[in-house]
From TrEMBL:
This is DNA ligase. Belongs to the ATP-dependent DNA ligase family. Its EC number is 6.5.1.1. Residues 571-592 are annotated as: Disordered. One of its GO terms (biological process) is DNA biosynthetic process. Keywords: ATP-binding, Cell cycle, Cell division, DNA damage, DNA recombination, DNA repair, DNA replication, Ligase, Nucleotide-binding.
């Protein structure tokens, strides 16, 4: 007997109902334990919010417009009705469940409803189809067979890749371990080797975890670096251990898998999210194809021309393009810069110390078309400061400090790698709009658009992509520079929700325009030119440092301050026609 989507929904609703990780694990473990192999694969996959296995490059390419149109047709609804329910529920899946159960025109239950295998087959068909109308017909057919609102809700949740159950990968790993009496460490290790947790679950069910071996083209989680605030903090953390410093490049972290030679060569590029993007970077594929052997490299894709790393803004012009045209490739060339090697010609190197891996990387890529990021030994605060300053002089983000004796620890941010980078000064900004959040914040105003005062002549009355220019409050006008939701506590969100509800000037769906009254101190990584905001700028990775209850709106920063920071040497996103300074030591690349 195959498992139904209704059973899957009931189990995941139960997991979502508790905030305790151990209870979530127990609920899922009990469910997984009773499933046959084929259903176990699908249950683990869908519980992770994936329509396909993590090593499967296929995508549904279906958005809310298609799903919404299918639901409206099935239930004979007006668009405004579904939109209203979606706003009230704070999440599309729950809105569909609500309208499904109350609609008089919903389709009659069809036996046991959808099975997990029905859903997987439907996803296969949707991914296969190209034209929007064909995809719409396949989505319509899938939802039409849902027997209950909960089935329809979870079908939508899986399509959109977010179940909102609070079940992260660690919980799923622990649930698989508990279901089949396997050590959690072994589950995690085998997942590193073969990539897909669903296949790990099947091996655990068979009691055959020891048979797993590493295979190329199964991406692994990236090793991460823990932040350090100052060189002194970093030196104290290193505690005299042997570390090396590498420049922290501003690009796209990438994992390169390559096998075969010549016409038989195969190259795959995976991002931090384990998405495959080699079609987006044919220039990088050609670069990698010149290297002999089978291997897995870790490194960074950067905009790159004539041996120089270019500003990040040029890389942005390549993002989101599956098959970039020749003109874009010529104008915005990219290259892969390597800093680690995890597999080479049949040998897994992750457990080797960094120094040994580096020797393998030098042997493979030294003197080739693939630059290797330079390393400089560091122990003391003075050495760390020197390395950091040299990196910033090269207009890079900062440095990564790596334990020379450490293994490669996928998915971990611990005591082996550290990052040190200087943040730009914060900006005091005025909130101009507040938006309801998602999940547990669906009834709170938790996302805030913020602005600075325009003391420059331009853009004082223009509308932009983020809506009309905010209202004038005094002789200057506010112009938006970004939006943030992280950095405030639940208590502060509740306080701000009450205040913004009171000072709302207009409402559009989930967004409230508010009187300019609240000042937030905003931290960020970069300032970039942007047509999205009337200010002409956007803050990269903005986060709320604190609420400045002590400041009046008039005390907030001016647009001239934003321009000043954009033009500063610290803002490495700013384009420059000058070549980056090249100090004698350390150089950016080795093996060139």
């Amino acid at each position: 007997m195959t498992s139904t989507l209704q059973h899957f929904a009931t189990v995941n609703d139960a997991a979502a109902a508790t905030s305790k990780k151990l209870q979530k694990q127990a609920i899922l473990a009990d469910y997984f334990r009773g499933l046959p192999e084929d259903d176990l694969r699908l249950a683990v996959r869908f519980a992770a919010g994936r329509a396909f296995a993590s090593t499967d490059a296929r995508v549904l390419n279906v958005g809310w417009a298609v799903v919404g149109e299918a639901i409206l047709a099935i239930l004979s609804l007006a668009p405004a009705e579904l939109r209203k329910l979606s706003i009230a529920a704070g999440e599309v899946g729950e809105a569909i469940a609500k309208v499904w159960e109350t609609s008089r025109t919903r389709p009659p239950p069809g036996g046991d409803g959808l099975t997990l295998r029905n859903v997987a087959a439907g996803f296969d068909e949707i991914a296969r189809l190209g034209m929007r109308q064909n995809k719409l017909a396949a989505v319509h057919d899938l939802f039409r067979h849902a027997a209950t609102g909960r089935e329809a809700a979870y079908l939508a949740k899986i399509i959109f890749g977010d179940l909102r159950t609070g079940v992260q990968e660690g919980v799923l790993q622990a649930a698989v371990a508990a279901a089949f009496d396997a050590p959690l460490a072994k589950i995690q290790r085998v997942q590193l080797l073969i990539g897909d947790l669903e296949e790990v679950a099947v091996l655990a069910r068979r009691q055959d975890l020891d048979s797993a071996t590493f295979t190329l083209f199964h991406p692994i989680q990236f090793m991460l670096a823990a932040p350090q605030e100052t060189p002194a903090d970093a030196a104290a953390t290193l505690a005299g251990r042997s570390f090396v410093a590498e420049d922290k490049l501003d690009g796209i972290r990438a994992q390169i898998h390559k096998s075969g030679q010549g016409v038989a060569a195969k190259v795959a590029i995976y991002t931090r999210t384990l998405d495959r993007v080699d079609e987006s970077f044919p220039d990088v594929v050609r670069q990698i194809e010149t290297i002999a052997g089978d291997f897995l490299l870790d490194g960074e894709i950067v905009p790159y021309r004539d041996g120089q790393v270019l500003p990040f803004g040029q890389l942005q012009k390549r993002l989101g393009r599956k098959s970039p045209p020749a003109a874009i490739l010529r104008q915005n060339p990219c290259a892969f810069i390597a800093f680690d090697i995890l597999f080479r010609d049949g040998s897994l190197l992750m457990d080797e110390p960094l120094a040994a891996r580096r020797a393998q990387l030098d042997a493979l890529c030294g003197g080739t078309a693939v630059p290797i990021l330079a390393q400089v030994p560091v122990v003391t605060e003075s050495q760390i400061t020197t390395a950091f300053t040299a990196s910033r002089d090269r207009r890079n983000e900062g440095i990564i400090l790596k334990d020379s004796a450490g293994p490669y620890a996928p998915g971990r941010r611990g005591g082996l790698w550290f990052k040190l980078k200087t943040h730009l000064p914060t900006l005091d900004c005025v909130v101009t709009a507040a938006e309801t959040g998602h999940g547990k914040r669906r009834n709170s105003l938790s996302d805030y658009t913020f602005a600075v005062w325009n003391d420059e002549a331009a853009n004082t009355s223009e509308d932009s992509a983020d809506g009309p220019a905010p209202q004038s409050h005094w002789p200057l006008e506010l112009v938006n520079v970004g939006k943030a939701y992280s950095g405030v506590t639940d208590d502060e969100i509740a306080q701000l929700t009450a205040l913004f509800t009171e000072i709302t000037t207009s409402t559009d769906g989930r967004v409230r325009q508010v009187r300019p009254q609240v000042v937030l101190e905003i931290a960020f990584d970069q300032i970039q030119r942007s047509d999205r905001h009337a200010s002409g700028f956007a803050l990269r990775f903005p986060r709320i440092k604190r609420i400045r209850w002590d400041k009046r709106p008039e005390d907030a920063d001016r647009l001239s301050r934003v321009t000043e920071l954009y033009e500063s040497i610290s803002n490495f996103a700013k384009p420059t026609s000058e070549p980056s300074p090249t100090p004698a030591e350390p150089t950016l690349f080795d093996g060139m």
